[in-house]
Amino acid sequence: MKIAILGVGNLGYSIALGILSQDQIEYESLYLSKRNIESLKSWDNIPKVRITTDNAKAVRNSEKIIIAVQPSQLNSILNEIKEDLNPKKHTIISVVTGRKIEQIAEIVGKDIPIIRSMPNTAISVGQSMTCLSANGSGKKNIECAKTIFNALGKTLFIEEELMQAATVICASGIAFWMRLIRATTQGAVQLGFDADEAQELSVQTCLGAASLLVKSGNHPEKEIDKVTTPSGCTIEGLNEMEHQGLSSSLIKGLVASFEKINQI
Ligand SMILES: NC(=O)C1=CN([C@@H]2O[C@H](COP(=O)(O)OP(=O)(O)OC[C@H]3O[C@@H](n4cnc5c(N)ncnc54)[C@H](O)[C@@H]3O)[C@@H](O)[C@H]2O)C=CC1
Ligand SMILES: O=C(O)[C@@H]1CCC=N1
Q: Which InterPro entries match (predicted)?
């Protein structure tokens, strides 16, 4: 596979880190393109990696074109590369929030295979949850996107109309889970732990809770039932959190995020 990432900012950088650190992705070349390449200078010596500001050159020398720019930058980059795109050679994989496959096809043409993808920043450590959707010709090439993103976490193919919801749950979700971890860390400090220990306790417990569900496939309440001793401290804490609106505030936050994303 010859891969290009156009727009190596927060997410593009995380994807590049993930590709470079996973041996399941066999790439012949990885072109990394951004406007100011100063921050990527140290990557210049990595075998098969090419750093450039020339998007068209990156496209000419690649097959899978991952576009990771801000929504407002998308049209200009598509206009820059459209003459170099060939439907028999290229697949566009856009991770741009809120921009539909149809909007990309309007600029590059309907024949170009287009895959819309929504990973999250945990892709840099091979633990992304990545949702994918595609146009007609993109669907034929979906395996290449799955090869990349399955090596960097898990993937789910979804209808494109669910992509905004997936963005909130999975991409913004990283920030939401970070806040929950931070809050439990703050609680642990208040209860007597040093900050470093508090974070370790919180993070490992979070990982343990997620791992229990991954391994068992159980509903969270089944695992909660195992922890909540009758009249015990867990149910006391849990009920107080719910009286204060824990589940309700999380759901309202997700819905607010979803409403905002539809305006982007
Ligand atoms: N940060 C995140 O967790 C996630 C971001 N996204 C989406 O991914 C996209 C990128 O987000 P970020 O990485 O956070 O943005 P960013 O602003 O950090 O990165 C964008 C990069 O593209 C470069 N760029 C802009 N125009 C260019 C051009 N014409 N040619 C080459 N490079 C160009 C910029 O210099 C910058 O390095 C956005 O659409 C965002 O909504 C999606 C999922 C998660
Ligand atoms: O906050 C945002 O708008 C972008 C989309 C998902 C993650 N970051």
A: 6-PGluconate_DH-like_C_sf, NAD(P)-bd_dom_sf, P5C_Rdtase_cat_N, P5CR_dimer, Pyrroline-COOH_reductase
Q: How far is CA 48 from CA 44, 58, 147, in A?
A: 9, 13, 19
Q: Is 251 in a helix, a strand, or coil?
A: helix
Q: How far apart are CA 224 and CA 96, in angstroms?
A: 37
The response to whether 12 counts as a known ligand-binding position is: no
8 A C-beta contact, residue 60 and residue 83: no
CATH class of 173-261: mainly alpha
Q: List, for residues 136-174, the tens digit of each pLDDT value.
A: 888 888 998 998 899 899 999 999 999 999 999 999 999
Beta strands in the chain (DSSP E): 2-6, 29-33, 49-52, 64-67, 91-94, 114-118, 128-134, 153-157
2-159, CATH topology level: Rossmann fold (3.40.50)
Complex ipTM tops 0.85: yes
Could you tell me the pTM of the whole model? Answer: 0.90
The response to whether residue 122 sits with its C-beta less than 6 Å from ligand 1 reads no
Measure 24 CA to ligand 1 centroid, in angstroms.
Answer: 25
Q: Give the start-to-end residue ranges of the domains of the chain.
A: 2-159, 173-261
Residue 15 Cβ inside 6 Å of ligand 1? The answer reads no
97, 118, 123, best to mutate for ligand 2 pocket (most atoms within 8 Å of CB):
97
pLDDT at residue 71, as a whole number: 94
Mean pLDDT of 235-253: 98
DSSP per-residue letters across 15-30: HHHHHHH-TTS--SEE
